[in-house]
Write a sequence for this structure.
């Protein structure tokens, strides 16, 4: 059943990691990476996770190599499917939803596993959620802050500058 669910998983949270030793944690991480290759993992000791990490709109908060709130565990174990992330914020511009859809189509072959953000579009604020190549938009009528978007993949940083250039082309005003 876990293998069947794998296609829908876009974030994994390992909670209560302080209850296991380093070897047990590494074994659990290996198992999770085998089931869900490339999916970002957040490790926490107490279940305290910043909301932007869950929403995926602050890429600095989604990095499974670092612990968010557990200082006693230091892991030097590297996984071949590590995830890199970068993001943009903008409080001045309005973006074309259609142009963003076109951009997502253009970069779909670049291996992004998740793209998520809150974007001020020509029809209002929208929550963008792209998992692999499946994209959804949701209206956010009560949101009125900045545009924020995060891009995650195994080699996201290699595409950061090009994505920034392409994303600027989606600005309406």
């Amino acid at each position: 059943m876990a293998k069947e669910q794998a296609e829908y998983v876009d974030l994994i949270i390992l909670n209560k990691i302080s209850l296991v030793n380093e070897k047990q944690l590494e074994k659990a991480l290996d198992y999770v990476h085998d089931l869900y290759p490339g999916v970002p993992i957040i490790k926490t000791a107490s279940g305290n996770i910043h909301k932007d990490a869950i929403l995926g709109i602050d890429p600095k908060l989604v990095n499974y190599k670092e612990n968010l709130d557990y200082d006693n565990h230091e892991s030097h174990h590297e996984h071949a499917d590590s995830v890199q992330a970068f993001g943009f914020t903008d409080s001045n511009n309005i973006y074309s939803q259609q142009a963003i859809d076109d951009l997502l189509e253009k970069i779909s072959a670049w291996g992004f596993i998740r793209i998520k953000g809150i974007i001020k579009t020509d029809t209002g604020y929208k929550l963008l959620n792209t998992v692999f190549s499946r994209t959804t938009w949701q209206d956010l009528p009560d949101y009125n802050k900045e545009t924020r978007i995060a891009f995650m993949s195994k080699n996201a940083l290699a595409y950061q500058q090009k994505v920034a250039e392409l994303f600027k082309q989606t600005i309406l005003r």
